[in-house]
Protein: HTH tetR-type domain-containing protein
Organism: Streptomyces tsukubensis
Amino acid sequence: MREVVDAGAGSRAAGARPLRRDAELNRRRIVGAGREVFAVRGLKATLNDVAHHAGLGVGTVYRKFADKEALAEAVFAEELDEIASMAGDALEGADAFAALAGFLERALARAAGNRGLRELMRHGEFGGGALVAARQVIAERCAELVARAHAQGALRDGVTGADVAPIAAMVDAVMALPGGEGAGLWRRYLLIILDGLRAHPTERTPLPE
C-alpha cells in the first residue's frame, strides 16, 4: 500500500512541474506582450489589449496580474533594469565624457521608441518598489559617470548627477513634438546639450540637419 501511495504522490509532483512551467511561460508571454503594447500605445493601453496581443484569455492575464499597474510595474522594472545595465556598461569606458554621452544617447534612443517608457519617466504614474529600486540604481550609476568625467577634467564645473534626469526630460520634450517631428530632431538637441556640458569644447560636434 505504501508503494502505491508513494507512486501516486510522485505522479502528482511530476504533473505539478509542467503546470508550474506553463504558468511561468504564460507570465513571460504576458510581460512580453505588455512590453510591446505599452511601447506602442502608451500607458492608456488596457489588460484586454495585452491579452489580445498575447493570444490569451483576459482571465489568464488577471490571474497573473491583478490590474494594469501591476503589469506595468513588471514590464517597466525590466526596462529600467536594462537601462541600469547600460549605465553599468558605460562605466567600463576609458573616456569618461564619451561614456556619459554614449549612455545618454543609448538610453534616450530606447525611450524614443517606447511611448510607455517615456510616459512613465515623464509623469511617474506607477511607483512600485521594483521601479523605485531600478531608478535608484540608474541615479547612482549616472552620478558615477558624472564623477568620472569630472575627474578626467572633461565635464564643466557645477554639473552633478542630479542634472542627468532633467537633461533627459529636455530631450524628451523634443521627442514629444506633435506630428512626430521630434523623432528626427532629438539627437540634434542632445548633441547641442552635450557640447554645452564639455569643460573645454575646443571642437563643436557636427550637428545633423
